[in-house]
Amino acid sequence: DTEVTQTPKHLVMGMTNKKSLKCEQHMGHRAMYWYKQKAKKPPELMFVYSYEKLSINESVPSRFSPECPNSSLLNLHLHALQPEDSALYLCASSQVVDRGHGYTFGSGTRLTVV
Amino acid sequence: EDQVTQSPEALRLQEGESSSLNCSYTVSGLRGLFWYRQDPGKGPEFLFTLYSAGEEKEKERLKATLTKKESFLHITAPKPEDSATYLCAVQATGGYQKVTFGTGTKLQVIP
């Protein structure tokens, strides 16, 4: 299995809703990432998990809450989002952090906040 | 701060017309330079990692090269299916693990 699987593919949520994005990989990678990508912009790093521990939080607002239950799963919990949070949310994984390995990205979750 | 600048922003080629995309970078020490391909509405697809000046890597019609200040992605005899946005990214040495992406080159290959 050489894929990163993200669910759901599309999500529409109101500003008072709570929802979660899910990411799964079975490549034995020990680093997992959340990125946010707006239209015609490059991916922006949000969080890095290394060996299931949060190692980087790029000053992301607390309405985004990451969780890494085990080495294969990564969640992003969403609460009280704003319309400007609408974007493509990408999960990625790599063998380890900081060794110059390329990332395997999922296809993303297209999030619309109404 | 690490910086990545890609040019051109957009490139339109006829099928079979070879060309190059440029990625200029500024980083304190280079851990790796990455090329990705991204189709609309999809996540980036990893193409290459280059680690040191002079290194070259090839995959089908694509060839990536690296100098101390820039990288080129050469596309030989492109086909319409090569149409995509090509992203360059760098990772610096040192304690910070962040990968910095450029804004990409949107390539369109016309049949």
Please describe the topology of this protein.
The complex is a heterodimer of chains A (114) and B (111).
Chain A: E1 4-7, E2 10-13, E3 18-25, E4 31-37, E5 44-50, E6 53-57, E7 64-70, E8 73-79, E9 87-94, E10 104-105, E11 109-113
Parallel strand pairs in A: 2-11
Antiparallel strand pairs in A: 1-3, 3-8, 4-5, 4-9, 5-6, 7-8, 9-10, 9-11
Chain B: E1 3-7, E2 10-14, E3 19-26, E4 30-38, E5 45-50, E6 56-59, E7 62-66, E8 70-75, E9 84-92, E10 99-101, E11 105-110
Parallel strand pairs in B: 2-11
Antiparallel strand pairs in B: 1-3, 3-8, 4-5, 4-9, 6-7, 7-8, 9-10, 9-11
Q: What report would you give on this structure?
A:
The complex is a heterodimer of chains A (114) and B (111). Helices cover 0% and strands 56% of the residues of chain A. With 114 residues, chain A is an all-beta fold. In chain A, strands 2, 4, 5, 6, 9, 10 and 11 form a 7-stranded mixed β-sheet that branches. A 4-stranded antiparallel β-sheet of chain A has the order 1-3-8-7, with no helix packed on it. Chain B is an all-beta fold. In chain B, strands 2, 4, 5, 9, 10 and 11 form a 6-stranded mixed β-sheet that branches. In chain B, strands 1-3-8-7-6 form a 5-stranded antiparallel β-sheet, with no helix packed on it. In chain B, a hairpin with a 6-residue loop joins strand 9 (84-92) and strand 10. Chain B starts with a strand and ends with a strand. Chains A and B meet through strand 5, strand 9 and strand 10 of A and strand 4, strand 5 and strand 9 of B.
Number of strands of chain A: 11
Strand-pairing-aware structural class of chain A:
mainly beta
The global form of chain B is globular
The ordered string of helix (H) and strand (E) elements of chain B is EEEEEEEEEEE
Instruction: Choose one word for the global shape of chain A.
Output: globular
Give the low-pLDDT segments of chain A. none
Number of alpha- plus pi-helical segments of chain B:
0
Helix content of chain A: under 10%
- Can you give the mean pLDDT of chain B? 94
Number of helices of chain A: 0
Taking Cα atoms only, what radius of gyration of chain A do you get, to the nearest Å? 13 Å
Strand content of chain B: over 45%
**Biggest sheet architecture of chain B:** 6 strands, mixed
| Uncertain parts of chain B | none
Report how far apart the termini of chain A are.
Answer: 36 Å
Give the quaternary arrangement of the chains: heterodimer
Radius of gyration of chain B: 14 Å
Structural class of chain B: mainly beta
Largest interface: A-B, 27 and 25 residues
Span from first to last CA of chain B? 41 Å
Mean pLDDT figure of chain A: 93
